[in-house]
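1st attempt posting a full record on here, be nice pls
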Amino acid sequence: MITTGQTTKTTVDTSEVAKFSAMAAEWWDPHGKFGVLHKFNPVRLAYIRQHFCRHFSLNERDLRPLKGMRVLDIGCGGGLLCEPMSRMGADVLGADASEKNIKTAMVHAREHRLAIDYRAVTAEQLADDGEQFDIVLNMEVVEHVADVGLFMASCAAMVRPGGMMFVATLNRTMKAFALAIVGAEYVLGWLPKGTHQWEKFVTPLELEDALAAGGMNVTEKSGVIYNPLTSVWSLSTDTDVNYMMVAIR
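the predicted structure (as tokens):
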């Protein structure tokens, strides 16, 4: 939290935290309420690995290319990204405003003998503490926070000089409303109804402006689309619904 005069600013939307806390036990069920994320994970992990290897001149064939590097997964949920990043050798901090999510993540990591630093904390609290990282993962979180500007500024402040941030979110278009809300939540039932609010989606231009304000330069942007025939997610030039960005400090 940041206090200015009599006003306390926070990135936490308590209704969003409550919503995901209620589903915390299902994070690692590939057929449960987070099943769509399990299907999405391979394409976003490949995207992250490709770009951090390129940026830091690392060997993509190395099993632990992130050894010696510090990674933050903000809004980590149950740890679906934290665990593979840890297996790639990174010193991982997984942060989430939901204590229930963090407890689920801690139990799963312990069961798989992974040493991951999980904390129930906000982005602004970590930034205020002076935390610094080589890589910040800001994936599918922006559309759930109360203050996008503060959230992005806090995340950007934690990227070390020469470091990078990955951001994934949903575009605020009618196509996204039709596919990500009506289609995914109400027709196909991929996500619980009410998971997303269209007015909280963020356009690529808004996101780029927020990153620039935090001293970050966007170097790559890609859309992500789903093929219902193969049940596979893949990268695309179409950013109308889901998209990802790479930004460098």
